[in-house]
Every structure is written in C-alpha cells, then in structure tokens.
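Handoff note, outgoing to incoming analyst
You'll be picking up this chain. Sequence as last confirmed:
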Amino acid sequence: MRGILMHMYRITTAVVVVIILALGLFFFYRSAGEDGSKIASSTPQASTTTLNGVTGTGNFTVSSVPTLTVPDFRAPIKFGADVPADVRAALQKSADIIIAKLTKDSLDLRAWIELGGVHKMGGDYKGAESAWLFVTQASPKNAIAYGNLADLYMNFLKDYSKAEAQYLKVISLEPSNIDPYRSLALLYTNFYKKGTSAAEDILKKGIRAIPDSTELKVLLERLLENK
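Most recent structure output, in case you need it:
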C-alpha cells in the first residue's frame, strides 16, 4: 500500500482505477461469526424473562448484542492538497462503488476495509482510521483491520504508541505472521523506544513463535552487530 501511495501520482487515471479495484483482492474479510469473535452472549432461560424490553416465556435463548455506531460511510473524502484532480476522480469513483455496497449492507466489513483504503490513498487518514476502527469493533478478531491501523499510525499519522498497540494486537491474533514482528522492530529501531531492548525483544519473540523464520534471525543478527 505504501508503495502505491508513493507512485500513485505518476500514473494515468485508467491505471489508477485498475489498481483501486484490484485492491479488493488483497483485503481479507472475516465476519464476526466467521472469525470466532463473540458479539453476543447467550443464556438459556426456562421461565418468563425480559431483556432489553423483550419478554418471552419457556426454554429459549436470550442474546445481548453490543450496540455498534456505524460511521457515516457517505462522508466525503478529505483529499490531501497534493492529490491531482485525475487521481481524486478515480478514487471517488471507487468510493462510490463501495458506498453503494454499504447502502445495501452497512455491516459489510470487507467494504469498510476497502473504503478505509480509498480514504488513505486520498490522504484522508482520519477517514481511513474511522473505517478500520469500526471493523475492529464489529469484528474484534479481524487482524487485517488492526494491521492497516498499525501501518497508518506508524507511517502516516506518526502516532507510534498507537502503532505499537495495533501491531501487538495482530501478534496476539496471528502469532505466526512475520509482518508485525518485522514492523515493530523497525518502529523500535528508528522511531519509538530507541535505545532500549524493545527491538531485540520483539525479534526474539518472533523467532520463538516462528522458529524457521530466517528473516527474523537475520534481522536480529544485524541489530546485534549494529549495537
């Protein structure tokens, strides 16, 4: 994604549209049920029971579902000042397609992830943050949303404590994913908690979780050599 942002402004509108539409292939989607996260707590009831204004009698299950505040998916993209007009048009076209999906189903989490990506490419980082935060609330085990937020905080919003928290969340969900260990090592080495053992510690943690990872071992060796 970062590479796309670096070169976006030097390509034609037609190519931009193709790239934007192709992004959907790279977004991983897990609904709240599919990823195993629990969005409702259920308790068997054998008598008259009232919950949230709903009353029933007999053997049945009452579920308490957390209330989700759906962001305004129609909010305009707040384009960065350096985004050319043709790129703006292409991004808006892509956003319109996603908005149509969300109009039909405001809980289409894949569409929310894609919408966040469009806002990010347009330089609207707060819009991207809002979209991806909503996905983490609706589907707390969606590692891709946390990873997108981590990259956003680290490389664009420069909020390093939040970036760290999001990368650690990805690790807790996908301990065998090499990316968050590598990104955290870069974060600790260059931007945050410099001069501490944080980078060394996270690489060692990654090696314990992924013992056959040559890349993490090489990164650790280079880090120790530099020290």
